[in-house]
Write a structure and sequence with these properties.
mainly beta, 7 strands, about 35% strand
Length: about 110
């Protein structure tokens, strides 16, 4: 088996330095190539009891708005709501467009 190689038409030092520059450039953090930001939607949640509104999180980020709304990236979003004396609500929802959820926390056993 014979190996055919292309003839080198530039100086070896120039070729080596270009390869080294490419290696160094590729060591930096880069983006995936998709420069378009993901689509966002408004996700709102109404929680009963109202005391749980203070403990609502979307993807582990606290929702600070009093109306329970926040901007999220479209796709799968984990919604958490908690209140003392109630079982926590933890569900994932597919969000593609503005969405409003209604959540009712269930009392813990023996708390009724």
């Amino acid at each position: 088996m014979t190996v055919r190689r292309r003839r080198l038409t530039t100086t070896p030092l120039l070729v080596a330095s270009a390869g080294a520059a490419m290696m160094l450039a590729s060591c930096e953090a880069t983006s995936s190539g998709n420069l378009v930001a993901p689509a966002e939607a408004e996700l709102c949640v109404d929680v009963l009891p109202e005391a749980a509104m203070a403990n609502v999180r979307f993807n582990d980020v606290p929702v600070e708005a009093e109306d329970g709304c926040a901007r999220v990236y479209e796709g799968t979003v984990e919604v958490r709501a908690e209140a003392d004396g109630y079982r926590p609500y933890i569900e994932t929802h597919e969000v593609f467009g503005d969405t409003r959820l209604e959540v009712t926390l269930e009392p813990e056993a023996g708390e009724q």
